[in-house]
Specification:
The complex is a heterodimer of chains A (133) and B (294). In chain A, 17% of the residues lie in helices and 44% in strands. Chain A is of the alpha+beta class. Chain A has a domain of 90 residues: Immunoglobulin-like. In chain A, strands 1, 2, 3, 4, 5, 6, 7 and 8 form an eight-stranded mixed β-sheet that branches. By secondary structure, chain B is mainly α. Chain B has one domain. The longest helix of chain B is centred in the first third of the chain and has 33 residues. Chain B is globular and about 60 Å long. Chain B starts with 7 loop residues before the first helix and ends in a 5-residue tail after the last helix. Classes of the chains: A alpha+beta (133), B mainly alpha (294). Chain A: Keywords: Copper, Signal. Chain A: InterPro entries: CopC_dom, Cu-Rt/internalin_Ig-like, Ig_E-set. Chain A: This is Copper resistance protein CopC.
């Protein structure tokens, strides 16, 4: 007598298979997942955060690991808000720089910035540095 | 847990984003629920349609408010920046602007899809287009941008979540009038939907979360993003427990005609709705303030 092979599975078995498939798909997604750093992150500042400088910096800079559009860049010091000769607000870029209009006087300074990354996330940050007398 | 430190402008953006998410999910889900349960009594269908239209309107208002608040935040946190054309333009040109435009069109299409004067095929096509545009809008901002697989997972996750969220108000009403066999049948039918909906929802959301955390479950504890995600997961667990209780205990009790079961079911649905509101709020905080592991 010939044996008939059928592709149809009993209901319980097809459910078990569907569960296994879903579990395998989930595990695969988790395992193949690369390390994702979706947002932009600040990688360095110029001068460094907390730096105590002997000379006034000619340029202030923010560096990111992916492009960001800066919308606020404020520097405050012993004489109040520092006027910037070169405006860092502009297009998407990984590095944003600002040049003080005049040489910075000795004292404590704070840089505050805000921006929007390529993926639409808004970001903010700040750091301090000092210039010795 | 890492402190989040919400300033008033960030808190405003979180609330506006949560409002947009909740409204858009309810509007989309209302349409999906209507398509999945076509045999509703005319009065219930009219209430659902009205809720869908109101939710779509609220979603549009929240989107526009979010636009202003983003500009205000980017300008340093003040109302003058909220109406600064340069900052509004920057937000408009960004990924957030793309989300705004897609969601706006999608939300405007949903009431059109409910207009009974149009042929059914046109209504279904317009509704499907509206839902897809809104889901696509969600995927345009954040980690899913530029990643087709993650976008698909997010769209699937939110599409299913919207169905669940929008089903709660009609089910709450039905639970209050279960004298008819048709109502009990509707509750049981939603329970059968849940058997497919919940595993898919968890698979999509869980896979997306693991992907974003770099496949490292430890990130749930040692990163701010993971800790907030843990709060969301705890709330989701509560939601699942309630869903299971409804599916296997309360709805069968209602169908059997147990006198106190309808009130218990309504309470359970109300708590489910509260948990969903909290989940949306946590998701909005996640999207606004923290980033995945680094």
């Amino acid at each position: 007598m010939k044996r008939v092979v059928t592709l149809a599975l009993p209901l319980g078995q097809s459910r078990r298979n569907a569960k296994r498939l879903a579990l395998a798909a989930g595990c695969t997604l988790m395992l193949v997942s690369p390390l994702l750093w979706a947002h932009a992150h600040i990688t360095a500042t110029e001068p460094e955060a907390g730096a105590i400088l002997e000379q006034a910096p000619e340029r202030l800079e923010l560096r990111f690991d992916s492009p960001i559009r800066i919308t606020q860049f404020e520097v405050t010091g012993p004489e109040g808000t520092v006027e910037l000769g070169e405006d860092p607000l502009g297009p998407l870029a990984e590095t944003h720089g600002a040049v003080p209009a005049e040489t910075l006087a000795p004292g404590d300074y704070e840089v505050v910035w805000r921006g929007i990354a390529e993926d639409g996330h808004t970001m903010s940050g700040g750091y301090r540095f000092a210039i010795q007398e | 847990m890492a402190s989040i430190g919400l300033d008033p402008w960030t808190a405003g953006r979180v609330l506006a984003l949560a409002g947009f998410y909740a409204s858009a999910l309810l509007a989309m889900g209302g349409l999906l629920f209507r398509a999945a349960f076509p045999g509703q009594p005319p009065r219930d269908a009219a209430v659902l349609d009205r809720c869908t239209c109101v939710a779509a309107g609220c979603g549009i208002v929240m989107l526009l408010l979010l636009w202003l608040l983003q500009a205000a935040y980017l300008g340093g946190g003040n109302w003058a920046s909220a109406f600064n054309p340069v900052l509004l333009g920057i937000v408009g040109e960004s990924a957030q602007g793309e989300r705004l435009r897609l969601a706006l069109v999608g939300l405007l299409l949903l009431p059109v899809a409910l207009w009974q004067g149009a042929p059914r095929i046109v209504r279904y096509a317009v509704g499907a287009l509206g839902v897809v545009l809104i889901l696509l809008a969600f995927s345009r901002v954040g980690h899913t941008r530029g990643s087709p697989w993650q976008s698909v997972l997010l769209m699937l996750h939110l599409g299913l979540a919207s169905f669940w969220a929008a089903a709660l108000p009609p089910l709450y009403r039905v639970a209050g009038s279960v004298s008819s066999g048709a109502s009990a049948e509707q509750l049981q039918r939603f329970g059968r939907f849940g058997l497919l909906l919940v595993p898919l929802l968890l698979l999509a959301g869980g896979s997306l979360a693991m992907w974003l955390m770099g496949g490292r479950p430890g990130a749930l504890l040692d990163t701010a993003y993971g800790q907030l995600l843990s709060v969301k997961l705890t709330l989701v667990m509560g939601l699942l427990l309630l869903g299971a209780a409804n599916r296997w205990w309360l709805v069968p009790a209602v169908a059997r005609g147990k006198p106190e079961a309808p009130l218990q079911l309504r309470c359970s649905i109300a708590v489910e709705a509260c948990l969903m509101v909290m989940i949306v709020l946590v998701a909005a905080v996640l999207l606004t303030t923290s980033s995945p592991v680094r």
